[in-house]
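Re: duplicated header lines in exported structure tokens

Our pipeline writes sequence and tokens for each protein into one text file. With two proteins the header for the second block appears twice in some exports. Here is an export where it did not happen, for reference. First protein block:
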Amino acid sequence: MMMKGTLYGVGVGPGDPKLMTYLAVETVKKCPVIAVPAEGREHAVSYRIAEGIVEGLEEKECLNLSTPMTKDMQILEQNYRAAADRIIGQLEQGKDVAYLTLGDPTIYSTYIYIHRIVGKRGYKTQIVNGIPSFCAVAARLGVSLADRAEQLHIIPSTYDIEEALTYPGSKVLMKAASKLSVVKDQLKEKEMKGIMVENCGLPDEHIYENVDDMPEKASYYSIVLVKENGHD
């Protein structure tokens, strides 16, 4: 009886290929099949990151599992089930699959929905964690995310952030780009300081030191760090 394959959700980190963990690199190397959340590996940022450090990546079979940019749960669920079906097709052949995802698979990742479906259907799944983007941003800026008893809040900016900005401590506004003008307005209104890093660790990285310098539009991979006591 053929052993069924395992699905690995591999966090490739925030952008710099050198920030992929040894375990992530080893896992991708041993899997004959990779999966990317895009229409073709050339369009997947996670693939381009892994390509910078994993030898022979281009020779692996690749599942293109793009997800529509929508909040319609019915459409998304159909998409996740279809992606899970394609992965299971490989697992049934005894092939391990490495799904490449930016940052860490446990933080606002599309992968986790596919992971749950595949697991519920009785297949082995494993998460290989990666360095989260906001940790890379803090390191790039040379600041702490949280000191002593200071709280840290991770906030998805594609939803209403007004209440979240009142939380004590540090706020990480993830996926800020699509609502950047709203984010800027709310920070100004509350007289809060923020630093934005766009494409952290990638060749087109850009740092905006204060709210006024932030553009009205930015790339999808933009994070705003709001510190209660500034960024000293």
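Second protein block, exported in the same file:
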Amino acid sequence: MEISPGIFIIGTSLWIEKEKVLIINDIHIGYEGELHAKGILVPRIQYKDIISEMKNILKAVQPEKIIINGDLKHEFGRISNQEWRDVLDFLDFLVKHAEVIIVQVNHDPIIKPIAEKRKVTVMGSYELEDTLIIHGDELIDTKKRIIIGHEHPAISIKEGSKIEKYKCFLKGKWKKNEVIVVPSFNPLLEGTDVLQGRMLSPFLENVDNFEVFIVSKGEAFNFGKVKGLK
């Protein structure tokens, strides 16, 4: 689905056609390890699912650059054995297909030692001709379109007595800038329900006027504005 002219939703990634740039957000490799430490037992298949989804996306598009827009790893302040193994393997997989750039943010304070092992560039943001790619946890003044993550947006849909949460993209305005919010690429992180109105990113103070694009079984559907769903 085309969310903005020349910009397409591919699974839970964003494809910028003109520059052949693929954006993935908030992968949080190692998240299942934290769940296990808390006594929440989940099958250790998260990483396999991430690789499987990337393979499906790379069958659909052939990027020249892949931007990992923040929170590549989950553990804050240290690099666990699982993260070393899985992050290096993930980067090895990606660099076979395109140049890889990591946008470094809150969960990545020590991502550089990993990136340097694979000669992957780490930056605070990434700019295209008319688009700025930043994580979204801090405001940056710009006149360009802004693509962020950080929020892990999702929406809960009620059908009878059943409630199901879906990852979603958001599109709206901050000042006069178009803002596109990309959901988490991690299958275990369902995300923040935008209908609850408690948003993390300062770009989303007026989220009611943002359009919602729900992702289900690899397809995207426009559900209108947030305020129309409340």
